[in-house]
Design goal:
Layout: E1 4-11, E2 15-17, H1 29-32, H2 36-44, E3 45-51, H3 52-56, H4 64-67, E4 74-77, E5 94-97, H5 101-112, E6 116-120, H6 122-130, E7 136-142, E8 150-151, E9 163-171, E10 174-181
Parallel strand pairs: 1-6, 1-7, 3-4, 3-6, 4-5
Antiparallel strand pairs: 2-8, 7-10, 9-10
């Protein structure tokens, strides 16, 4: 059965977006384009659960088909599906899930087979950890301080979650931390 990896990039001071909602300072193009690290992520990923805010970051939703690194089934957690569905291809499909994170993860696990499900987006990462649906937590630490913005872990309901570090890896200037979630809430 697929394992669920909740993953997110954040600044050293814990923000996933700056005060204007931007994420450009958190990205390292060298880590994304054809690196051994990214090739490994792509190979291990069988499905993605994406938050609606993260989905909307693409100015043109049709961009995902053929351009997004994970050409797999994508399950977008949302209250309202878009009026016009984005382009799909033989590998990348979209399902807009309106009945919560548990339903999205269940559907993504079925689609992923033996490969991992990646949960991407601050809100859905917190929801997956809080609901006990995440097996692992992967945090990419960018070497920047944003000072303010959208925090990844500013959720008092996460109090009590225990993690065990399973890996640390340098990916260009970014540091990837991997944890097993030991006691989901």
């Amino acid at each position: 059965m697929a394992t669920v990896h909740a993953r997110m990039s954040m600044s050293l001071d814990g923000f996933v977006a700056d005060r204007d909602g931007g994420t450009a300072r958190l990205s390292d193009p060298a880590a994304s384009s054809g690196s051994e690290w990214m090739t490994g992520l792509i190979r291990e990923t069988g499905a993605v659960v994406l938050g609606r805010r993260s989905f909307d970051m693409a100015e043109d939703p049709d961009w995902y088909a053929g351009n997004y690194e994970f050409q797999v089934p994508i399950f977008v957690v949302t209250h309202t599906p878009p009026a016009v569905l984005p382009a799909e291809n033989e590998h990348l499909t979209f399902t807009f899930v309106t009945d919560g994170i548990a339903s999205a993860v269940k559907q993504a696990r079925a689609a992923a087979g033996e490969r991992a499900v990646k949960v991407i987006g601050a809100s859905v990462v917190r929801q997956a950890v809080r609901a006990g649906l995440a097996d692992e937590l992967h945090v990419l630490i960018a070497p920047v301080l944003l000072g303010a913005g959208l925090p990844l872990f500013g959720d008092p309901e996460l109090d009590g979650v225990t993690l065990r570090r399973t890996g640390v890896r340098e990916v260009g200037p970014v540091t990837e931390l991997r944890f097993q979630v030991l006691n989901p809430l």
